[in-house]
């Protein structure tokens, strides 16, 4: 019997390329390692193994180099890292968390990212996101699970005029097309 390992190549569900229109740029996110960590007791043990302190305050993020941890709930974090970390990071985290009750799930193939930036980013997103997105209400580093029209997303403000949207792959074209439609409408006015 063969011990062949099958590895699925991950391709973007978005056929579009980065584009700017009306002062807003849409960019498909690069492939990332995405892990969901559950377990309040596990957070401290995960800090060192992940290389960044997981945020303990609601709706916050923490970054270290190319890694980011987004607080999604009292005992839940979305961990983002370069795809090149996929061979070592899950094992390092599993080892560090061995003594703490937790769940660590790789969701890299489930999700993708859309990066949105530019001077009109807040009104563009507010066409579909029912949150106050001014920088005063939703500052840089804030992250939350919310809805985008009919799709569940994780919205993370990465800069004064920049957002990172994590969305299930099956909803990514839908979210992209809605953003495009509003960009075209705003550019025409």
Automatic annotation (TrEMBL):
The gene is soxG. InterPro entries: SoxG, SoxG_het, TrmE/GcvT-like. Pfam families: SoxG (PF04268). This is Sarcosine oxidase subunit gamma family protein.
């Amino acid at each position: 019997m063969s011990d062949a390992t099958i590895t699925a190549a991950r391709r973007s569900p978005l056929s579009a390329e980065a584009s700017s229109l009306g002062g807003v740029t849409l960019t498909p996110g690069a492939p990332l390692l995405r892990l969901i960590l559950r377990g309040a007791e596990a957070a401290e043990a995960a800090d060192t193994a992940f290389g960044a302190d997981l945020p303990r305050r609601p709706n916050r993020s923490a970054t270290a180099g190319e890694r980011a941890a987004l607080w999604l709930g009292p005992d839940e974090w979305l961990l983002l890292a370069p795809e090149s970390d996929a061979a070592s990071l899950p094992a390092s985290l599993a080892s560090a968390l061995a003594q703490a009750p937790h769940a660590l799930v790789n969701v890299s193939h489930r999700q993708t990212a859309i990066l949105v930036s530019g001077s009109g980013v807040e009104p563009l997103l507010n066409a579909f996101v029912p949150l106050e997105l001014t920088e005063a209400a939703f500052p840089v580093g804030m992250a939350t699970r919310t809805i985008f029209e009919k799709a569940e997303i994780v919205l993370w403000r990465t800069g004064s005029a920049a957002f990172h949207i994590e969305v299930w792959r099956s909803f990514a074209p839908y979210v992209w097309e809605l953003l495009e439609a509003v960009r075209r409408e705003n550019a025409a006015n």
